[in-house]
Amino acid sequence: MNMAEGEWDIITGNHAAALAAKLARVGVVAAYPITPQTTVVEYLASFVESGYMNAEYIRVESEHSAMAAVIGAAAAGARTFTATSSQGLLYMAEVLHWAAGSRTPVGMAVINRSVGPPWNIHVDHQDTMSQRDTGWLQLYVSSNQEVLDTIIMMYKVAEHPEVMLPFMVCLDAFVLSHTFMPVNVPKQEEVDDFLPPYRPRHWMLDPSDPISFGNLVFPDDEYQEMRWSIDLSMRRALEVIEEVAEEFSEKFGRYHGGAIMKYRISDADYVILTSATLASEAEVAVDMMRDEGLSIGLLKLRSFRPFPHHSIRENLQGKKGVIVIDRSISFSSGGPIGTEVRSSLYDVSGAPAVVNYITGLGGRDITYNDVIAMSKDAISRISTGRLRKPYYWHKLKQDYQRIELAEEVVS
Amino acid sequence: MELEVLILIPVSKPRRGATGETGLWRVERPIIDEGKCIKCWICWLYCPEEVISEGQSGFPVIDLSFCKGCGVCANVCPAKAIKMVRE
Questions:
Q1: Which residue does chain A place closest to B13, by CA atoms?
Q2: Does the domain spanning A260-410 belong to CATH 3.40.50.920?
Q3: Which end of chain A is less enclosed by CB atoms within 10 A, N or C?
Q4: Per residue in B53-70, pLDDT tens?
């Protein structure tokens, strides 16, 4: 049990996520406990059981039901939370669309675990990347402090009257979820002062005034407009994320970035663009390469949905090259981040070359040394014009890397 | 630039016939013979569409705007008072 509010504590990412839900005064938690679920929901169960957290804890029979339960609770006016991972998220997939479509600001921690087969449960981003078009806000974080702070911030973003969309805060399996780190746990009063209680303004389930939601609409009705409205709110959320991050930093003295976080990029010729804990490795790599005299910086992508096209264009225009490192793959197309960054930059004059790497799948360890290797490979490709492929694999086992290389030479 | 954001929500007030009159789907229509009807209301109990109610005469009446003609009422009637007739 954590009672260290207002103090430093040494806790896991899962513990930080559960504490964030408690501090946000979540009223309803619904969760399914089987693997690939993590200890987030165990912490929450013990918080509720001990009376430390005042919430309704609904034990459901599947992730599909967990999501349905929190949508119902959010529709009835509660602040809600759940957590899942890999196959569990995929089992929720249908209902994820319902959460966004019904404009319920449900909150969720997703521990990024690779998708089977084969079973693995170590980190990669295939699970959440595959759910990018569900209408959920998606943020990727790099530390346990950022897990806690981002979940609290995202309730404020999601419940903004012009946003009203569910959010997932994505944290890397084991690297954050099960690793102990120092975390400054805010006091309940401080969080209360930052995050007011949830008051639905658009619609609410009320037995005395029955309405139904998700009813049938025909092609001439507002179906297309409802999708447009989600898109509009998503774009508006980009600004709200920045506003909320500023306000959070004023109140709590911590700033993790808005949709992006910049590190030593203003004078850099080359920029590494990546997300989650790979961005922490990249920060070290940038410092080391700077010491060698390389002009390089880092743009950490925090928000994948909404996608910050404008910031990416603004910060990368005029650079020589961008090294995008993805921890998931859209087979035969490239990394989800890489393809979108390239699409973002395509019609910018003086757009940098984009070199996209796929690596770290199934938890393969990717350290700052790998980031340096990829950066140097990219810089060498850019300066010699060897940009034959839309994306490259990094750190395949030797025999497999040889096949990949042979294909590059032939192509 | 500030966007003007409209939140469109898929909620609706339930109302009669909101998505059309399902009676149009019917192939066979139930006809009640009041001479045989014993007012046991088993048809009312079984009707999956809840379209059977008590008429002014005290006998069951069927709302043909929404009766889909499934024939459950005719099948369960112990007095064989309901006949299905082709539309």
A1: A211
A2: yes
A3: C
A4: 999 999 999 999 999 999
